[in-house]
Amino acid sequence: MGWDTVLPALISSVLDHLTVVYIPDVIPVDDEIELRIATESDAATLFQLVEKNREHLRAWLPWLDETTSIQDEIEFIHGQLIRHQKTDGSLFLIWYQGRTIVGTLSVNQVDHGNQTGWIGYWLDRGHTGKGIMTRSVGAIVDVLLVSCGFNRVVIEIGVGNSASMAIPLRLGFREEGKSVERQWMYDRWVDSLQYAITAREWPPNHLTPSE
Ligand SMILES: CC(C)(COP(=O)(O)OP(=O)(O)OC[C@H]1O[C@@H](n2cnc3c(N)ncnc32)[C@H](O)[C@@H]1OP(=O)(O)O)[C@@H](O)C(=O)NCCC(=O)NCCS
To answer: How far, in Å, CA of 27 to CA of 42, rounded?
Structure first.
């Protein structure tokens, strides 16, 4: 076999392992939902949504005391935009029916070497119960595993957060185990369960990519 055969195969093989490249700014979910990267101009709206949902979110999210002003939100979004540009993480806003921001869906962490992303989310209490988050998570998982070259997506969920656990389970994720005292939550340690799915397992038999 000559270099003219070996070289393209070698390049292709290397590229296959370096394909975590780019997370898009906009992810269409279906005719009701779109995920759009948060920008500083969204800060006031997002902050109002956090204010409205403080008690609902406080049960399972640890950052409420660090977000107490629009300026905090601007700085948070600014940091997330820099991470998005480096494919180190992405903060998406969930736009419902084209006009309302109803929550966020984030890529919280990326392990480039192992092509793995960790995602997290929250929803305005008034918009729960409609499948908005299950549909949104399904769409981002599809983009990460099919278009962006990730091999694995992980969701870590506090033990007892059954509404959140139902989301990966609906989408065919595996429960992989429990991390003890995984997260400090204001005044106590919380254990978490890890859910994951790989590119090889996606989409599971009961779903098509558009569901
Ligand atoms: C976790 C959280 C996003 C779940 O919200 P949710 O509304 O239960 O999730 P979904 O938007 O996927 O909606 C699922 C519900 O809609 C129903 N549903 C309607 N249409 C649906 C569809 N097309 N697909 C899936 N579910 C659908 C489901 O049956 C389910 O109803 P149920 O609550 O009666 O069981 C929300 O509880 C939350 O923000 N909690 C606080 C923050 C938090 O815990 N974040 C996660 C940290 S790990």
So the answer is: 17
**Ligand 1 pocket test, candidate residues 33, 35, 52, 122, most atoms within 8 A of CB:** 122
Ranges in the chain, pLDDT < 70: 1-3, 6-20, 208-211
CATH number for the domain spanning 160: value is 3.40.630.30
What pLDDT score was predicted for residue 15? 53
pTM score above 0.90:
yes
- Examine residue 10 and state whether it is found in any structural domain, yes or no: no
Question: In a mutational test of the pocket of ligand 1, which residue from 102, 133, 153 has the highest number of ligand atoms less than 8 Å from its CB?
Answer: 133
Is the CB of 132 within 6 Å of ligand 1? yes
User: Alpha helix locations (H) across the chain?
Assistant: 3-16, 43-52, 54-58, 70-85, 132-142, 162-170
Residue whose CA is at the smallest distance from ligand 1 atom 14: 131
Is residue 116 a part of any domain in this protein?
A: yes
- Determine whether the shortest distance from the Cβ of 157 to ligand 1 is under 6 A: yes
Quickly count: other Cβ atoms within 10 Å of residue 95's Cβ. Answer: 20
Nearest-CA residue for atom 7 of ligand 1: 128
The 10s digit of each residue's pLDDT in 105-163 is 999 999 999 999 999 999 999 999 999 999 999 999 999 999 999 999 999 999 999 99
Domain tally for the chain? 1
Identity of residue 31: D
Is 93 part of a structural domain of the chain?
A: yes
Looking at residue 140, the DSSP 8-state letter turns out to be H
Report CA(125)–ligand 1 centroid distance (Å): 10
